[in-house]
Amino acid sequence: MNGASDLKARQETFLRAILDEGAPLPEGWTNRQAAGMAVYRGNYRSALVGALENTFERTALYVGESAFKQASAHHAITHPPAGWTIDEVGAGFDATCEQLFANNPEVADLAWLEWSMLQVAIGPDVEPLGPQEFAAATGEFGDNEWMALRLEFQARSCGRIVETNLTGLWNALEDAAATERPDPRLAEPRGCLVWREGERPTFQLTEPEAVTAFTAMQEGATYGEVIVALAGNEPSPEQVQDAAMRAGALLGDWLKEGMIISLKA
Amino acid sequence: MTQHHDPIQPFGGFGLGLREVHYDDFLAGPEEPGVPVDFVEVISENYMVEGGRQLRILEQVRERYPVILHGVSMSIGSAGGLDTDHLDKLKRLEQRIDPLWVSDHLCWTRTSAHNSHDLLPMPLTESALAAVCANIEQAQNLLGRAMLFENPSSYLTFPEDEMTEWDFMTEMTRRTGCYLLLDVNNIYVSARNHGFEAEDYLAGLPLERVRQIHLAGHDPATPERDIIIDTHDREVADGVWDLYAKAMAMLPQPVATMIERDEHIPPLAELITELDRARGIAKRALVPA
User: Fold this and answer.
1) Domain B19-286 classification at class level
2) Whole-number Å distance between alpha carbons of B39 and A43
Protein backbone atom coordinates (compact mmCIF):
# COMPACT_ATOMS: atom_id res chain seq x y z
CA MET A 1 0.00 0.00 0.00
CA ASN A 2 1.45 3.40 -0.89
CA GLY A 3 1.29 6.47 1.35
CA ALA A 4 -1.77 8.04 -0.27
CA SER A 5 -3.90 4.90 -0.30
CA ASP A 6 -2.75 4.11 3.23
CA LEU A 7 -3.91 7.56 4.39
CA LYS A 8 -7.21 7.09 2.55
CA ALA A 9 -7.80 3.73 4.21
CA ARG A 10 -6.95 5.16 7.63
CA GLN A 11 -9.35 8.05 7.16
CA GLU A 12 -12.13 5.71 6.09
CA THR A 13 -11.54 3.53 9.18
CA PHE A 14 -11.46 6.59 11.43
CA LEU A 15 -14.69 8.00 10.07
CA ARG A 16 -16.40 4.60 10.21
CA ALA A 17 -15.47 4.46 13.89
CA ILE A 18 -17.06 7.88 14.43
CA LEU A 19 -20.26 6.98 12.61
CA ASP A 20 -20.65 3.55 14.17
CA GLU A 21 -19.91 3.23 17.86
CA GLY A 22 -19.75 -0.54 17.43
CA ALA A 23 -17.02 -0.35 14.78
CA PRO A 24 -13.64 -1.64 15.96
CA LEU A 25 -10.94 0.93 16.66
CA PRO A 26 -7.81 0.80 14.53
CA GLU A 27 -5.24 -1.80 15.49
CA GLY A 28 -2.66 -0.69 18.04
CA TRP A 29 -4.83 1.99 19.63
CA THR A 30 -4.60 2.46 23.38
CA ASN A 31 -7.18 3.60 25.94
CA ARG A 32 -5.87 7.13 25.46
CA GLN A 33 -6.81 7.06 21.79
CA ALA A 34 -10.14 5.42 22.58
CA ALA A 35 -10.88 8.31 24.96
CA GLY A 36 -10.03 10.78 22.20
CA MET A 37 -12.28 8.92 19.77
CA ALA A 38 -15.12 9.22 22.30
CA VAL A 39 -14.75 13.02 22.08
CA TYR A 40 -14.93 12.95 18.27
CA ARG A 41 -17.98 10.68 18.38
CA GLY A 42 -19.67 13.05 20.82
CA ASN A 43 -18.77 16.08 18.69
CA TYR A 44 -20.19 14.45 15.57
CA ARG A 45 -23.52 13.58 17.12
CA SER A 46 -23.98 16.87 18.93
CA ALA A 47 -23.11 18.85 15.77
CA LEU A 48 -25.71 17.03 13.69
CA VAL A 49 -28.40 17.15 16.36
CA GLY A 50 -27.60 20.84 16.91
CA ALA A 51 -27.94 21.54 13.19
CA LEU A 52 -31.30 19.77 13.12
CA GLU A 53 -32.46 21.73 16.18
CA ASN A 54 -31.53 24.99 14.46
CA THR A 55 -33.32 24.08 11.25
CA PHE A 56 -36.42 22.50 12.79
CA GLU A 57 -37.08 24.81 15.76
CA ARG A 58 -40.85 24.60 15.48
CA THR A 59 -40.91 20.84 14.92
CA ALA A 60 -38.74 20.42 18.02
CA LEU A 61 -41.05 22.63 20.01
CA TYR A 62 -44.10 20.73 18.78
CA VAL A 63 -42.91 17.20 19.57
CA GLY A 64 -40.94 18.14 22.70
CA GLU A 65 -37.23 18.05 23.46
CA SER A 66 -36.89 14.37 24.25
CA ALA A 67 -38.84 13.07 21.23
CA PHE A 68 -37.00 15.49 18.95
CA LYS A 69 -33.59 14.42 20.23
CA GLN A 70 -34.48 10.78 19.59
CA ALA A 71 -35.77 11.58 16.11
CA SER A 72 -32.75 13.68 15.22
CA ALA A 73 -30.31 11.07 16.54
CA HIS A 74 -32.15 8.43 14.49
CA HIS A 75 -31.99 10.64 11.40
CA ALA A 76 -28.28 11.35 11.89
CA ILE A 77 -27.55 7.63 12.13
CA THR A 78 -29.70 6.63 9.16
CA HIS A 79 -28.73 9.61 6.99
CA PRO A 80 -25.03 10.34 7.66
CA PRO A 81 -24.22 13.56 5.80
CA ALA A 82 -22.01 13.57 2.74
CA GLY A 83 -22.06 17.20 1.57
CA TRP A 84 -19.82 20.04 2.72
CA THR A 85 -22.59 22.04 4.36
CA ILE A 86 -23.90 20.77 7.65
CA ASP A 87 -27.31 22.23 6.84
CA GLU A 88 -27.81 19.36 4.41
CA VAL A 89 -28.31 17.02 7.33
CA GLY A 90 -31.91 18.28 7.36
CA ALA A 91 -32.64 16.83 3.91
CA GLY A 92 -35.20 14.04 4.24
CA PHE A 93 -35.97 14.82 7.88
CA ASP A 94 -39.67 15.15 6.98
CA ALA A 95 -39.60 11.55 5.72
CA THR A 96 -37.93 10.46 8.96
CA CYS A 97 -40.70 12.22 10.89
CA GLU A 98 -43.33 10.56 8.69
CA GLN A 99 -41.90 7.22 9.72
CA LEU A 100 -41.31 7.97 13.41
CA PHE A 101 -44.52 9.95 14.02
CA ALA A 102 -46.81 7.88 11.80
CA ASN A 103 -49.90 8.70 13.88
CA ASN A 104 -49.17 12.42 13.75
CA PRO A 105 -48.81 13.40 10.10
CA GLU A 106 -48.67 17.05 11.13
CA VAL A 107 -45.11 16.48 12.39
CA ALA A 108 -43.86 15.52 8.91
CA ASP A 109 -45.83 18.39 7.34
CA LEU A 110 -44.29 20.86 9.79
CA ALA A 111 -40.77 19.50 9.23
CA TRP A 112 -41.27 19.72 5.46
CA LEU A 113 -42.39 23.34 5.81
CA GLU A 114 -39.40 24.33 7.97
CA TRP A 115 -36.99 22.69 5.55
CA SER A 116 -38.66 24.32 2.55
CA MET A 117 -38.60 27.76 4.18
CA LEU A 118 -34.86 27.39 4.86
CA GLN A 119 -34.15 26.27 1.32
CA VAL A 120 -36.04 29.09 -0.34
CA ALA A 121 -34.36 31.62 1.98
CA ILE A 122 -30.92 30.89 0.51
CA GLY A 123 -31.99 30.73 -3.12
CA PRO A 124 -30.73 33.19 -5.72
CA ASP A 125 -31.93 36.80 -5.58
CA VAL A 126 -33.97 37.27 -8.75
CA GLU A 127 -36.54 39.96 -9.43
CA PRO A 128 -39.98 38.46 -10.05
CA LEU A 129 -41.85 39.04 -13.27
CA GLY A 130 -44.43 41.74 -12.57
CA PRO A 131 -48.00 41.61 -13.92
CA GLN A 132 -47.27 44.48 -16.31
CA GLU A 133 -44.15 42.81 -17.71
CA PHE A 134 -46.13 39.60 -18.08
CA ALA A 135 -48.92 41.43 -19.88
CA ALA A 136 -46.41 43.08 -22.22
CA ALA A 137 -44.70 39.74 -22.96
CA THR A 138 -47.95 37.91 -23.69
CA GLY A 139 -49.91 40.77 -25.28
CA GLU A 140 -49.59 39.37 -28.79
CA PHE A 141 -50.17 35.74 -27.82
CA GLY A 142 -52.64 33.70 -29.81
CA ASP A 143 -54.21 30.44 -28.58
CA ASN A 144 -51.21 28.36 -29.66
CA GLU A 145 -48.72 30.54 -27.77
CA TRP A 146 -50.86 30.44 -24.65
CA MET A 147 -51.15 26.66 -24.80
CA ALA A 148 -47.36 26.32 -25.24
CA LEU A 149 -46.51 28.78 -22.47
CA ARG A 150 -44.04 27.54 -19.90
CA LEU A 151 -43.04 29.39 -16.74
CA GLU A 152 -39.89 29.65 -14.69
CA PHE A 153 -40.59 29.96 -10.98
CA GLN A 154 -38.36 31.23 -8.18
CA ALA A 155 -35.58 28.72 -7.54
CA ARG A 156 -36.34 26.44 -4.60
CA SER A 157 -40.00 27.43 -4.35
CA CYS A 158 -42.08 24.31 -3.80
CA GLY A 159 -45.44 22.86 -2.88
CA ARG A 160 -47.00 19.89 -1.12
CA ILE A 161 -50.42 18.48 -0.34
CA VAL A 162 -50.80 18.62 3.43
CA GLU A 163 -53.26 17.39 6.03
CA THR A 164 -52.21 19.98 8.59
CA ASN A 165 -53.34 23.43 9.57
CA LEU A 166 -49.84 24.71 8.97
CA THR A 167 -50.82 28.37 9.20
CA GLY A 168 -52.30 27.93 12.67
CA LEU A 169 -49.51 25.66 13.84
CA TRP A 170 -46.74 27.89 12.45
CA ASN A 171 -48.13 30.97 14.18
CA ALA A 172 -48.79 29.13 17.45
CA LEU A 173 -45.19 27.89 17.54
CA GLU A 174 -43.76 31.35 16.89
CA ASP A 175 -43.65 31.97 20.61
CA ALA A 176 -41.79 29.14 22.32
CA ALA A 177 -43.46 29.97 25.63
CA ALA A 178 -47.04 29.83 24.30
CA THR A 179 -48.85 26.66 25.25
CA GLU A 180 -52.06 27.09 23.28
CA ARG A 181 -52.06 25.06 20.08
CA PRO A 182 -54.74 24.82 17.40
CA ASP A 183 -56.17 21.48 16.28
CA PRO A 184 -53.48 20.54 13.74
CA ARG A 185 -55.75 18.42 11.54
CA LEU A 186 -57.57 19.87 8.53
CA ALA A 187 -60.99 18.55 7.58
CA GLU A 188 -59.76 18.16 3.99
CA PRO A 189 -56.23 18.00 2.54
CA ARG A 190 -54.97 21.35 1.25
CA GLY A 191 -52.10 22.55 -0.84
CA CYS A 192 -49.16 24.44 0.66
CA LEU A 193 -46.94 26.65 -1.48
CA VAL A 194 -43.60 28.01 -0.25
CA TRP A 195 -41.80 30.90 -1.92
CA ARG A 196 -39.93 34.10 -1.10
CA GLU A 197 -41.23 37.65 -0.88
CA GLY A 198 -38.06 39.67 -1.32
CA GLU A 199 -35.73 38.10 1.24
CA ARG A 200 -38.53 36.74 3.40
CA PRO A 201 -39.60 33.11 2.97
CA THR A 202 -43.36 32.71 3.11
CA PHE A 203 -46.05 30.09 2.58
CA GLN A 204 -49.74 29.86 1.94
CA LEU A 205 -52.36 27.16 2.28
CA THR A 206 -54.35 26.93 -0.91
CA GLU A 207 -56.44 24.58 -3.03
CA PRO A 208 -54.72 21.24 -3.70
CA GLU A 209 -55.03 21.82 -7.45
CA ALA A 210 -52.88 24.96 -7.10
CA VAL A 211 -50.03 22.79 -5.85
CA THR A 212 -50.61 20.14 -8.51
CA ALA A 213 -50.60 22.77 -11.26
CA PHE A 214 -47.61 24.62 -9.78
CA THR A 215 -45.57 21.42 -9.47
CA ALA A 216 -46.46 20.34 -13.01
CA MET A 217 -45.41 23.67 -14.49
CA GLN A 218 -42.27 23.76 -12.36
CA GLU A 219 -41.38 20.39 -13.88
CA GLY A 220 -41.90 21.73 -17.39
CA ALA A 221 -45.62 21.28 -18.19
CA THR A 222 -47.19 23.88 -20.48
CA TYR A 223 -50.07 26.10 -19.53
CA GLY A 224 -52.20 24.10 -21.99
CA GLU A 225 -51.29 20.83 -20.30
CA VAL A 226 -52.30 22.28 -16.96
CA ILE A 227 -55.70 23.27 -18.36
CA VAL A 228 -56.15 19.75 -19.75
CA ALA A 229 -55.22 18.23 -16.37
CA LEU A 230 -57.60 20.56 -14.53
CA ALA A 231 -60.44 19.71 -16.92
CA GLY A 232 -60.25 16.00 -16.08
CA ASN A 233 -61.06 13.01 -18.30
CA GLU A 234 -63.33 13.51 -21.31
CA PRO A 235 -64.41 16.98 -20.25
CA SER A 236 -67.41 18.82 -21.64
CA PRO A 237 -66.80 22.21 -23.32
CA GLU A 238 -68.10 23.83 -20.14
CA GLN A 239 -65.57 21.89 -18.06
CA VAL A 240 -62.76 22.97 -20.38
CA GLN A 241 -63.95 26.54 -20.09
CA ASP A 242 -64.03 26.23 -16.30
CA ALA A 243 -60.55 24.67 -16.24
CA ALA A 244 -59.20 27.55 -18.35
CA MET A 245 -60.73 30.04 -15.92
CA ARG A 246 -59.20 28.23 -12.93
CA ALA A 247 -55.78 28.04 -14.61
CA GLY A 248 -56.02 31.76 -15.34
CA ALA A 249 -56.80 32.45 -11.69
CA LEU A 250 -53.80 30.38 -10.58
CA LEU A 251 -51.56 32.22 -13.02
CA GLY A 252 -52.85 35.52 -11.66
CA ASP A 253 -52.11 34.43 -8.09
CA TRP A 254 -48.56 33.35 -8.94
CA LEU A 255 -47.91 36.64 -10.68
CA LYS A 256 -49.39 38.65 -7.83
CA GLU A 257 -47.26 36.79 -5.29
CA GLY A 258 -44.09 37.26 -7.33
CA MET A 259 -43.47 33.53 -7.77
CA ILE A 260 -42.78 33.69 -11.52
CA ILE A 261 -39.43 34.99 -12.69
CA SER A 262 -39.64 34.50 -16.45
CA LEU A 263 -41.47 32.97 -19.37
CA LYS A 264 -39.75 30.02 -20.97
CA ALA A 265 -39.53 29.67 -24.70
CA MET B 1 2.32 22.73 -9.93
CA THR B 2 3.43 25.31 -7.37
CA GLN B 3 2.35 28.81 -8.35
CA HIS B 4 3.57 31.90 -6.61
CA HIS B 5 0.98 34.12 -5.06
CA ASP B 6 1.22 37.64 -3.72
CA PRO B 7 2.50 37.73 -0.15
CA ILE B 8 -0.06 38.45 2.55
CA GLN B 9 1.01 41.67 4.23
CA PRO B 10 1.03 41.77 8.04
CA PHE B 11 -2.03 43.42 9.57
CA GLY B 12 -2.14 44.13 13.27
CA GLY B 13 -5.85 44.63 13.93
CA PHE B 14 -8.26 43.24 16.49
CA GLY B 15 -11.50 41.63 15.46
CA LEU B 16 -14.46 39.43 16.27
CA GLY B 17 -16.44 36.73 14.55
CA LEU B 18 -19.60 38.03 12.91
CA ARG B 19 -22.51 36.12 14.45
CA GLU B 20 -26.19 36.51 13.68
CA VAL B 21 -27.11 37.80 17.16
CA HIS B 22 -24.81 40.79 16.57
CA TYR B 23 -25.94 41.71 13.05
CA ASP B 24 -27.81 44.78 14.28
CA ASP B 25 -24.73 46.05 16.13
CA PHE B 26 -22.59 45.78 13.02
CA LEU B 27 -25.24 47.37 10.82
CA ALA B 28 -26.08 50.31 13.08
CA GLY B 29 -26.75 53.56 11.25
CA PRO B 30 -24.06 56.13 10.37
CA GLU B 31 -25.04 58.21 13.43
CA GLU B 32 -23.85 55.34 15.64
CA PRO B 33 -20.14 55.06 16.54
CA GLY B 34 -19.78 51.58 15.02
CA VAL B 35 -18.27 48.49 16.60
CA PRO B 36 -14.67 49.10 17.76
CA VAL B 37 -13.06 46.32 15.73
CA ASP B 38 -10.55 46.45 12.89
CA PHE B 39 -12.05 43.49 11.04
CA VAL B 40 -14.68 40.79 11.30
CA GLU B 41 -14.26 37.13 10.53
CA VAL B 42 -17.06 34.98 9.14
CA ILE B 43 -17.48 31.25 8.72
CA SER B 44 -17.21 31.00 4.94
CA GLU B 45 -19.64 28.12 4.56
CA ASN B 46 -22.46 30.08 6.20
CA TYR B 47 -22.36 32.49 3.27
CA MET B 48 -21.58 30.11 0.41
CA VAL B 49 -25.20 30.31 -0.71
CA GLU B 50 -26.89 31.59 -3.85
CA GLY B 51 -28.55 34.61 -2.23
CA GLY B 52 -30.84 35.80 0.52
CA ARG B 53 -30.62 37.87 3.67
CA GLN B 54 -27.41 36.38 5.11
CA LEU B 55 -25.39 37.19 2.03
CA ARG B 56 -26.86 40.70 1.74
CA ILE B 57 -25.96 41.41 5.37
CA LEU B 58 -22.41 40.21 4.84
CA GLU B 59 -22.08 42.55 1.88
CA GLN B 60 -23.35 45.45 4.00
CA VAL B 61 -20.93 44.58 6.80
CA ARG B 62 -18.14 44.38 4.22
CA GLU B 63 -18.85 47.97 3.23
CA ARG B 64 -17.96 49.01 6.80
CA TYR B 65 -15.31 46.52 7.96
CA PRO B 66 -12.59 44.38 6.38
CA VAL B 67 -13.75 40.75 6.33
CA ILE B 68 -11.81 37.52 6.75
CA LEU B 69 -13.27 34.32 5.29
CA HIS B 70 -12.61 31.44 7.67
CA GLY B 71 -13.67 28.00 6.48
CA VAL B 72 -14.46 24.80 8.33
CA SER B 73 -15.16 22.39 5.46
CA MET B 74 -12.30 22.54 3.00
CA SER B 75 -10.93 19.28 4.44
CA ILE B 76 -7.42 20.12 3.33
CA GLY B 77 -6.14 16.83 4.73
CA SER B 78 -8.48 14.55 2.80
CA ALA B 79 -6.57 11.77 1.08
CA GLY B 80 -9.26 11.72 -1.60
CA GLY B 81 -8.64 15.35 -2.63
CA LEU B 82 -10.76 18.48 -2.37
CA ASP B 83 -14.47 18.90 -3.03
CA THR B 84 -14.58 21.01 -6.19
CA ASP B 85 -18.14 22.18 -5.50
CA HIS B 86 -16.96 23.59 -2.17
CA LEU B 87 -13.96 25.23 -3.82
CA ASP B 88 -16.04 26.78 -6.60
CA LYS B 89 -18.52 28.25 -4.14
CA LEU B 90 -15.70 29.56 -1.95
CA LYS B 91 -14.14 31.19 -4.99
CA ARG B 92 -17.46 32.86 -5.83
CA LEU B 93 -17.76 34.19 -2.26
CA GLU B 94 -14.16 35.34 -2.27
CA GLN B 95 -14.74 37.31 -5.47
CA ARG B 96 -17.93 38.81 -4.05
CA ILE B 97 -16.47 39.85 -0.67
CA ASP B 98 -12.83 40.64 -1.49
CA PRO B 99 -11.65 39.47 1.93
CA LEU B 100 -8.48 40.40 3.78
CA TRP B 101 -7.58 36.74 3.44
CA VAL B 102 -9.06 33.25 3.30
CA SER B 103 -8.30 30.62 5.91
CA ASP B 104 -9.22 27.08 6.88
CA HIS B 105 -7.92 24.36 9.21
CA LEU B 106 -5.14 21.83 9.08
CA CYS B 107 -7.48 18.86 9.41
CA TRP B 108 -9.74 16.61 7.42
CA THR B 109 -13.52 16.40 7.71
CA ARG B 110 -14.67 13.85 5.16
CA THR B 111 -14.09 10.82 3.03
CA SER B 112 -15.65 10.34 -0.40
CA ALA B 113 -18.73 8.85 1.26
CA HIS B 114 -19.39 10.84 4.41
CA ASN B 115 -18.70 14.13 6.14
CA SER B 116 -18.07 14.33 9.89
CA HIS B 117 -18.53 18.12 10.05
CA ASP B 118 -15.77 18.07 12.64
CA LEU B 119 -12.12 19.04 12.42
CA LEU B 120 -10.48 15.61 12.52
CA PRO B 121 -6.78 15.17 13.33
CA MET B 122 -4.14 14.46 10.73
CA PRO B 123 -1.63 11.69 11.23
CA LEU B 124 1.69 13.53 11.32
CA THR B 125 3.39 11.52 8.60
CA GLU B 126 5.22 12.29 5.39
CA SER B 127 2.38 10.85 3.28
CA ALA B 128 -0.19 13.01 5.10
CA LEU B 129 2.04 16.04 4.59
CA ALA B 130 2.25 15.28 0.87
CA ALA B 131 -1.55 15.02 0.63
CA VAL B 132 -2.06 18.27 2.55
CA CYS B 133 0.46 20.16 0.42
CA ALA B 134 -1.08 18.92 -2.84
CA ASN B 135 -4.51 20.03 -1.65
CA ILE B 136 -3.24 23.42 -0.46
CA GLU B 137 -1.66 24.05 -3.82
CA GLN B 138 -4.90 23.16 -5.59
CA ALA B 139 -6.90 25.49 -3.34
CA GLN B 140 -4.44 28.38 -3.57
CA ASN B 141 -4.17 28.04 -7.34
CA LEU B 142 -7.93 28.07 -7.74
CA LEU B 143 -8.37 31.05 -5.43
CA GLY B 144 -5.38 32.79 -6.96
CA ARG B 145 -4.08 33.75 -3.55
CA ALA B 146 -2.12 32.31 -0.65
CA MET B 147 -4.21 31.02 2.23
CA LEU B 148 -3.84 30.75 6.00
CA PHE B 149 -4.18 27.42 7.77
CA GLU B 150 -5.01 27.05 11.43
CA ASN B 151 -3.53 24.55 13.85
CA PRO B 152 -6.40 22.42 15.17
CA SER B 153 -7.09 21.29 18.70
CA SER B 154 -6.90 17.51 18.90
CA TYR B 155 -7.96 14.76 21.25
CA LEU B 156 -5.73 11.94 20.09
CA THR B 157 -2.44 11.35 18.35
CA PHE B 158 -1.58 8.44 16.08
CA PRO B 159 0.90 5.66 16.77
CA GLU B 160 2.29 6.16 13.27
CA ASP B 161 3.17 9.85 13.80
CA GLU B 162 6.62 10.66 12.41
CA MET B 163 6.98 14.33 13.42
CA THR B 164 5.60 17.01 15.72
CA GLU B 165 2.67 19.15 14.63
CA TRP B 166 4.88 22.22 14.53
CA ASP B 167 7.38 20.47 12.26
CA PHE B 168 4.47 19.38 10.06
CA MET B 169 3.21 22.97 9.82
CA THR B 170 6.67 24.36 9.22
CA GLU B 171 7.21 22.02 6.29
CA MET B 172 3.68 22.71 5.02
CA THR B 173 4.34 26.46 4.83
CA ARG B 174 7.76 25.91 3.24
CA ARG B 175 6.44 23.66 0.49
CA THR B 176 3.25 25.58 -0.35
CA GLY B 177 3.91 29.21 0.57
CA CYS B 178 0.80 29.25 2.74
CA TYR B 179 0.59 31.27 5.94
CA LEU B 180 -0.42 30.35 9.47
CA LEU B 181 -3.40 31.17 11.60
CA LEU B 182 -2.18 30.48 15.10
CA ASP B 183 -4.96 29.36 17.40
CA VAL B 184 -3.42 29.89 20.82
CA ASN B 185 -6.28 28.12 22.59
CA ASN B 186 -5.80 25.10 20.34
CA ILE B 187 -2.09 24.97 21.17
CA TYR B 188 -2.99 25.13 24.86
CA VAL B 189 -5.65 22.40 24.50
CA SER B 190 -3.46 20.05 22.44
CA ALA B 191 -0.43 20.63 24.71
CA ARG B 192 -2.46 19.59 27.73
CA ASN B 193 -4.05 16.65 25.93
CA HIS B 194 -0.82 15.28 24.47
CA GLY B 195 1.75 16.33 27.05
CA PHE B 196 3.99 18.67 25.09
CA GLU B 197 5.13 22.17 26.03
CA ALA B 198 3.13 24.91 24.37
CA GLU B 199 6.26 27.08 24.33
CA ASP B 200 8.09 24.41 22.30
CA TYR B 201 5.25 24.53 19.79
CA LEU B 202 5.59 28.30 19.42
CA ALA B 203 9.36 28.16 19.21
CA GLY B 204 9.20 25.45 16.55
CA LEU B 205 6.99 27.36 14.13
CA PRO B 206 8.08 29.73 11.37
CA LEU B 207 6.57 32.68 13.21
CA GLU B 208 7.25 35.04 10.31
CA ARG B 209 4.48 33.16 8.46
CA VAL B 210 1.83 33.90 11.10
CA ARG B 211 -0.77 36.47 10.04
CA GLN B 212 -3.55 35.88 12.52
CA ILE B 213 -4.22 34.61 16.03
CA HIS B 214 -7.41 33.03 17.36
CA LEU B 215 -8.35 33.13 21.02
CA ALA B 216 -11.23 31.11 22.46
CA GLY B 217 -12.53 29.33 25.52
CA HIS B 218 -12.32 25.63 26.28
CA ASP B 219 -13.94 23.05 28.53
CA PRO B 220 -11.38 21.93 31.14
CA ALA B 221 -10.69 18.30 31.96
CA THR B 222 -12.86 16.62 34.60
CA PRO B 223 -12.27 13.66 36.93
CA GLU B 224 -14.23 11.57 34.42
CA ARG B 225 -12.59 12.98 31.28
CA ASP B 226 -8.89 13.70 31.24
CA ILE B 227 -9.18 15.64 27.99
CA ILE B 228 -9.62 19.37 27.43
CA ILE B 229 -12.14 20.24 24.73
CA ASP B 230 -12.09 23.28 22.47
CA THR B 231 -15.62 24.65 22.81
CA HIS B 232 -15.74 28.37 21.90
CA ASP B 233 -18.53 28.69 24.46
CA ARG B 234 -16.94 30.74 27.23
CA GLU B 235 -14.31 33.34 28.06
CA VAL B 236 -10.68 32.82 27.16
CA ALA B 237 -8.91 31.00 30.02
CA ASP B 238 -6.06 32.65 31.98
CA GLY B 239 -3.55 30.07 30.78
CA VAL B 240 -4.44 30.91 27.19
CA TRP B 241 -3.98 34.64 27.85
CA ASP B 242 -0.52 33.88 29.26
CA LEU B 243 0.35 31.90 26.17
CA TYR B 244 -0.99 34.69 23.96
CA ALA B 245 1.32 37.16 25.72
CA LYS B 246 4.28 34.87 25.06
CA ALA B 247 3.30 34.45 21.41
CA MET B 248 2.90 38.20 20.91
CA ALA B 249 6.33 38.80 22.40
CA MET B 250 7.87 36.25 20.04
CA LEU B 251 6.20 37.27 16.78
CA PRO B 252 8.46 39.34 14.53
CA GLN B 253 5.60 41.20 12.78
CA PRO B 254 2.13 42.53 13.62
CA VAL B 255 -0.65 39.92 13.46
CA ALA B 256 -4.42 40.18 13.55
CA THR B 257 -6.02 38.91 16.78
CA MET B 258 -9.56 37.69 17.00
CA ILE B 259 -11.79 36.18 19.67
CA GLU B 260 -14.02 33.29 18.66
CA ARG B 261 -17.34 32.62 20.35
CA ASP B 262 -19.79 30.19 18.76
CA GLU B 263 -21.97 29.02 21.66
CA HIS B 264 -23.51 30.94 24.57
CA ILE B 265 -22.73 34.11 22.66
CA PRO B 266 -22.86 37.11 25.04
CA PRO B 267 -23.84 40.70 24.22
CA LEU B 268 -21.28 42.34 21.98
CA ALA B 269 -20.06 44.64 24.77
CA GLU B 270 -18.71 41.63 26.69
CA LEU B 271 -16.72 40.45 23.70
CA ILE B 272 -15.38 43.95 23.13
CA THR B 273 -14.17 44.00 26.74
CA GLU B 274 -12.43 40.66 26.17
CA LEU B 275 -10.91 42.01 22.97
CA ASP B 276 -9.64 45.04 24.90
CA ARG B 277 -7.72 42.64 27.12
CA ALA B 278 -6.04 41.27 23.98
CA ARG B 279 -5.22 44.82 22.87
CA GLY B 280 -3.61 45.52 26.24
CA ILE B 281 -1.52 42.36 26.15
CA ALA B 282 -0.41 43.03 22.59
CA LYS B 283 0.55 46.59 23.48
CA ARG B 284 2.64 45.45 26.44
CA ALA B 285 4.31 42.78 24.30
CA LEU B 286 5.54 45.48 21.94
CA VAL B 287 7.17 47.45 24.74
CA PRO B 288 10.75 46.23 25.35
CA ALA B 289 11.26 44.96 28.91
Assistant:
1) alpha beta
2) 29
